[in-house]
Amino acid sequence: MNLTDSKYNRFALVKEMLQTVDVIRGFDFGQTAAAAKTVKETGRLFLTGEGSSRIFPAKSFMYGVLKRGLPIAVATDGSFQAAEYNLSDWVVAGASNSGQTKEVIALMKKLGEAGHHKRIGITAHEGTTLAGVTDECFVLSCGNEDAVAATKSVIEQGLVYRSILCNLIDCECPKNKEKAADLAAEVMQTEYDPAVIEKLAKAKLLYFAGRNNGVAEELTLKTNEITRKKSDYLEGTYLLHGVEEVMSAGDACILIDPFPSEFGKIKEFIEGRAGLTVIAVANEETPFPTIKLPKLVGYDPFLQLMAGWNLLVQIGIALGIDLDKPERARKVGNQFEG
Predict the structure, then answer these.
(1) Domains defined along the chain, listed by start
(2) pLDDT in tens, 66-102
(3) Residue 294 CB-density burial (10 A; 0-12 exposed, 13-18 middle, 19+ buried)
(4) Residues with Cβ < 8 Å from 288, sequence gap 6 or more?
(5) CA dist 279 to 259, 265, 302, Å?
(6) What 3-state class would DSSP assign to 146?
(7) CB-CB neighbours of 241 under 10 Å
(8) What strands, in cross-sheet order, belong to the sheet with 290-292?
């Protein structure tokens, strides 16, 4: 996708996706230094939010912490469920693009009334309700989004959490952000094989399979908003543990950073026996049509997500969909009123 072709540049969604390049380039990794210190002292961080404000930002952070083996407990759930937990000894971070998400506001208010004073907010707007019910609130620099599907805000929310990780360890993300921005532009502007796009556009259901780091799951949600197709997220190797019984020939499966050891069985059971179109988004070639991505430590999940956006936009364009105006989905799913 690009801003020179009229089939793309008429959509706010495409413009906002491509603005992510400048979001990365200008991101301040030092802004969460104090928050990281609190997290280190507490040893526990709970990440909450709803939909896109939680799936990728929270789970990519959790993946990074566990992969690094840091001595910090990290957990995530939606805010209504989190309100049932004892979070008195946790730093609690809640992301809400609008700053008005009902579930997040309710949780933060409840914690504050109980004397909790380690509440962090992340929002895209100044003067929000969320800022008033948290002890520290980060305001994103990405600006307003006109498209219903959240994109650049999701990346910046993810960077805020990533910056906490970078303030806890020796991380190369700050010095590599210029390169990451350049790669983001490259990834989002790549045109994919029209034959592959046609097959995906014809599929009634798009499955996404991959690590539980928020990428495949977030793209599953974005599939509904951008292509209006049904979708399903198959965590880890769930793809090979029985779901093929209900798959239909002509459906498609998009593998995000797949495990090479499973290629043979995916080829046999999912592509061969179930009859699905299978493609991969990966750093190396696979036995399937592959969207090959550059590798950059710390930014790989971000680049995978943006490649997925590009894929979904090209599918939506092929289907003749108005990418900015879904019929039912709302920008603020469940807005706080009070």
Answers:
(1) 6-177 (3.40.50.10490), 181-318 (3.40.50.10490)
(2) 999 999 999 999 999 999 999 999 999 999 999 999 9
(3) middle
(4) 255, 263, 266, 267, 271, 278, 279, 280
(5) 13, 14, 19
(6) coil
(7) 9
(8) 230-235, 205-210, 252-256, 277-282, 290-292
